[in-house]
Amino acid sequence: MSQPVDIRAPEVFPRLRVALIRYSEEGEASLGRLQIQIQRTLEYAQGAVRSLEREVARARARLEDAQDDLYAARSRQDDDGSPDCSYEEAALYEAQSRLREAQDRFDQGRMHLRRLEEAAQRLRPSGHKFKHLLRTSVPKAAEFLGRISRPLEQYLETPITAGGAGLAMGEAEPASPTTATSPGNPTAAAGGIVSPLLSSPSGASSWKERGIVQVELDQLPVIEGIEGPEDFKKTPKDKMMRGILRLQEMSPVLRTGQGQDSDYWREHDAARGLSYEDGYQVVYDSFYGSDPIRVEHDGDSWDIASGRHRILVARELGMTSLPISLVERAER
Question: Are residues 136 and 259 in the same domain?
């Protein structure tokens, strides 16, 4: 008997994108640790060779002392005219033996150091190439996953019409015709959270806060004026990318109704030993806290008040929607 198909299987794509970004991050960290260890090994080996060189110098000095002692002993005259130099000769032999041993150790150490330096030199281009792949190919792979998963995610979000009522899979019936039929369909169901805000633009009574809702990114204008990483002043682009992918990882939990406050993610981070900066709480706060993406909607016009960088990165990663603080002009 055939097994039922899990239509939620496409959620594996955001998880895989997160895994790719983590691999990139951990790969760079591991490469950095390897390079530090190689440098420390080289420094240790260089120090050992210098120590062996000093040992050779000491052995050579002892040999010279032994030679001087033997010469002095042979210069002495005793009663029968033939001095006993056996002690000095033995000392000279011992000094010569010690010098040969020290020289052999120094030569071996120098040879091993040269081989180690050659190996490190060969590894350096490979390390640069690996870092380049982590910084280019892995993000490209994540972006590719976003592109191929977009049709599947759109399929999952397509409303199912039954009995005249349009219902999205796994969602409750829309509260009003506006949220159900507006072009962007910015409902809170996809994100599972509506957080009402207190302010409205310019204090105009004709504007209405919709809270934080899920908005389709293709409804929003093209982002201009952000060209490269140097345009990300507040948060580096790679860190923002990891945060947005982590938001995708959090989405299944948010859809269940859990994780609807910052404390939930603080405890989640604490259980995993994650700091605030590297954890999930900071991601939650960035989208549902005091500094969310904010968009104003007036008929066919959409204006991005804040969060242009996050929207740009989300599009590059192939995401189709984001939780956004939406304010709309009410119909007169």
Answer: no
